């Protein structure tokens, strides 16, 4: 009888405890010592950004967005495809026959190379404090072995190998010499020259693809170094973190110059493509695992100190509105930075703006584009995430927590990023209305030692209700087609960073609640 009663009371206690999940509500403890040893924390995630193809950089909207992102990240360089596309106009062996009424010596600028648009493109970047990260692509149509071999992008780049490598070598040398003549070798020597884009996919028409890409790389690297040994050249610029070890071994075996290794990964790449396994790797760790894989391959290569540049990465390569347009990007980005610190010299987010036409002319501002800024210069949540994380210091304080970063600045300020990661609420490329239940809030108890117990704290938030233009767009009913000026103004206001909250520590403590997909930045003064 006593045994039965005891079991009944135990069952009742368990039921009551289960209905009030107190343990789940206890704040996560974040303990920071302002005087603790630190490690260098270079802002590797915001040194370079990708963008739409080269010719788009001549547009006012592109340059406006570039200045906006530069202002909040101070990024140093931009990478884009297509500097050799026919629309840029560099190569035309028939240029002297285009004015048949005049003798060749009377044709203005006669010659097979025309640097007019290239100069405007690079001048425009440099005037805004941004250097080119030079991707050497794609093939001029009149140089291609097969001018009909094109990739499926809206602008149909020619991806064929050259019909004669002597033509390619001469163009590369002329291109490099012109840049040095115009900008000086001291400037050009700070740029990265990357040979082609993702040759292991349909961006390269040589077959078999990687051996023929190695031939392209060899010609290009040697042509550049013949102009100046100070030019920095690298590759293989592959998708899916592939072939870096093979590429470096090839360069070693054939005595081919290489100054950096570059590759790409996206968080929705598959384990089969990146690791050749059947794992199901979640989106929040895929980029880290790929970066670690390549970092370790380089460490075991003939060039163990070779700089690693991830010249493209993002949370999705497939235009998922529930991913790249939403507040999901705040925690995803912060967590990616936490994991990848120390493994790569640079990671180039693809891309800074949706002035971008790979899938065609943009029809709506929120379609899952890659950019931090949507069409009509509307800031996305990802823009605010970069703006917040830019304020992290240059000295990292070690934390054991997986949802926090702590840094110290040279002026003694302590910065703390906190986030509540949750998978995307939607289901894929098609937009899904926000669900009724969006997950569980997360509470943090932040303790900072080594500062006044009532120190001032500045707090910035990014979540569904702060810095989120998409919520306003949803309220509008997701209008299709062009927006009115009034709608654009409303969305810009909704997407602006929410004003900072001014708080104080209480006895060295501060409690913060962060909703799912929320990112918070604390600056302890």
TrEMBL record:
Q: What are the leading ranks of the lineage?
A: Bacteria, Pseudomonadati, Acidobacteriota, Terriglobia, Terriglobales
Task: Specify whether Hydrolase is a keyword of the entry.
Answer: yes
Q: What is the protein's given name?
A: Xylan 1,4-beta-xylosidase
The enzyme's E.C. designation = 3.2.1.37
What top-level class of enzyme does the UniProt entry assign? hydrolase
The UniProt keyword set, sorted, is: Glycosidase, Hydrolase
Report the domain of life of the source organism: Bacteria
């Amino acid at each position: 009888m006593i045994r039965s009663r005891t079991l009944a009371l135990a069952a009742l206690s368990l039921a009551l405890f289960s209905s009030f999940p107190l343990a789940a509500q206890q704040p996560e403890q974040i303990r920071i010592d302002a005087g603790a040893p630190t490690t260098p924390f270079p802002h590797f995630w915001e040194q370079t950004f990708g963008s739409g193809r080269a010719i788009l950089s001549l547009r006012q909207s592109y340059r406006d967005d570039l200045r906006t992102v530069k202002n909040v990240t101070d990024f140093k360089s931009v990478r884009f495809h297509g500097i050799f596309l026919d629309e840029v106009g560099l190569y035309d062996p028939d240029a002297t026959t285009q004015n048949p009424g005049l003798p060749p010596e009377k044709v203005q600028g006669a010659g097979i190379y025309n640097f007019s648009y290239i100069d405007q493109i690079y001048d425009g970047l440099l005037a805004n404090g941004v250097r080119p990260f030079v991707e050497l692509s794609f093939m001029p149509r009149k140089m291609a072995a097969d001018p009909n071999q094109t990739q499926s992008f809206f602008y149909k780049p020619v991806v064929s190998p050259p019909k004669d490598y002597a033509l390619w070598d001469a163009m590369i040398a002329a291109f490099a010499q012109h840049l040095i003549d115009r900008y000086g070798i001291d400037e050009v020597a700070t740029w990265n020259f990357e040979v082609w884009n993702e040759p292991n996919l349909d961006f390269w028409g040589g077959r078999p693809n990687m051996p023929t890409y190695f031939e392209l790389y060899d010609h290009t690297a040697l042509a550049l170094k013949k102009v100046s040994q100070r030019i920095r050249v690298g590759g293989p610029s592959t998708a899916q973190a592939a072939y870096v070890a093979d590429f470096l071994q090839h360069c070693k075996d054939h005595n081919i110059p290489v100054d950096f290794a570059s590759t790409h990964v996206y968080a929705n790449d598959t384990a089969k493509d990146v690791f050749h396994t059947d794992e199901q790797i979640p989106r929040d760790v895929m980029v880290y695992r790929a970066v670690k894989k390549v970092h370790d391959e380089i460490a075991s290569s003939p060039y163990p100190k070779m700089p690693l540049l991830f010249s493209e990465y993002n949370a999705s390569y497939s235009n998922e509105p529930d991913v790249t347009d939403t507040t999901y990007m705040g925690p995803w980005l912060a967590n990616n930075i936490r994991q990848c610190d120390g493994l790569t010299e640079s990671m180039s987010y693809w891309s800074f703006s949706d002035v971008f036409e790979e899938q065609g002319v943009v029809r709506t501002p929120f379609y899952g584009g890659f950019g931090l800024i949507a069409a009509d210069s509307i800031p996305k949540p990802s823009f605010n995430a970069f703006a917040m994380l830019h304020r992290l210091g240059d000295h990292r304080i070690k934390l054991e927590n997986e949802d926090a970063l702590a840094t110290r600045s040279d002026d003694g300020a302590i910065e703390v990023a906190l986030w509540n990661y949750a998978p995307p609420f939607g289901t894929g490329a098609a937009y899904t209305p926000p669900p009724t239940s969006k997950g569980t809030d997360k509470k943090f108890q932040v303790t900072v030692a080594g500062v006044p117990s009532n120190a001032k704290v500045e707090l910035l938030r990014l979540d569904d209700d702060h810095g989120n233009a998409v919520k306003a767009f949803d309220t509008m009913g997701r209008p299709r087609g062009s927006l009115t000026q009034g709608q654009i103004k409303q969305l810009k206001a909704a997407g602006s960073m929410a004003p900072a909250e001014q708080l104080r520590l209480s006895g060295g403590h501060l409690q913060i609640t962060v909703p799912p997909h929320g990112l918070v930045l604390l600056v302890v003064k």
